[in-house]
């Protein structure tokens, strides 16, 4: 997830504080290039939690966006089960 803050805000807070805030949100800081920072979050709930923690920590967030699209996440993260085509039945178990 990529976040952008007001100019100078991330520098004032510092990397150590950003790392600590990210940990509180169960996220990891991936890159810091003020006024932007990139974080690894597990899902949308993790992204929302990260924004809440950053704002609560006094960081004015101007923009937040995922690093990849949902389609990219599908292919990069893999799916547990392949989708079933419409009109086809999934196997229900061993047949006799």
Brief overview, please?
The chain has one domain (2-69). It is 38% helix and 21% strand.
Shape designation: globular
Overall mean pLDDT score?
Answer: 83
**Helix count, per DSSP?**
4
Round the Cα radius of gyration to an integer and report it. Answer: 19 Å
Low-confidence stretches: 79-86
User: How many DSSP-defined strands?
Assistant: 4
Overall SS class: alpha+beta
Describe the structure.
- It is a single chain.
- By secondary structure, the chain is of the alpha+beta class.
- It has one domain (2-69).
- Helices cover 38% and strands 21% of the residues.
- The chain is built from four helices and four strands.
- A four-stranded antiparallel β-sheet has the order 2-3-1-4, covered by helices on one side.
- Strand 2 and strand 3 (36-40) form a beta hairpin.
- The chain is globular and about 35 Å long.
- The relative contact order is 0.20.
- The model is unreliable at 79-86 (pLDDT under 50).
């Amino acid at each position: 997830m990529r976040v952008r803050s007001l100019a100078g805000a991330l520098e004032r807070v510092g990397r150590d504080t950003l790392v600590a805030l990210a940990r509180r949100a169960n996220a990891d800081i991936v890159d810091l290039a003020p006024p932007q920072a990139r974080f690894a979050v597990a899902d949308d709930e993790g992204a929302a939690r990260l924004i809440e923690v950053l704002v609560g920590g006094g960081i004015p967030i101007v923009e937040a966006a995922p690093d990849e699209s949902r389609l990219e996440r599908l292919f990069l993260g893999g799916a547990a089960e392949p989708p079933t085509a419409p009109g086809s039945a999934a196997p229900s178990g061993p047949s006799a």
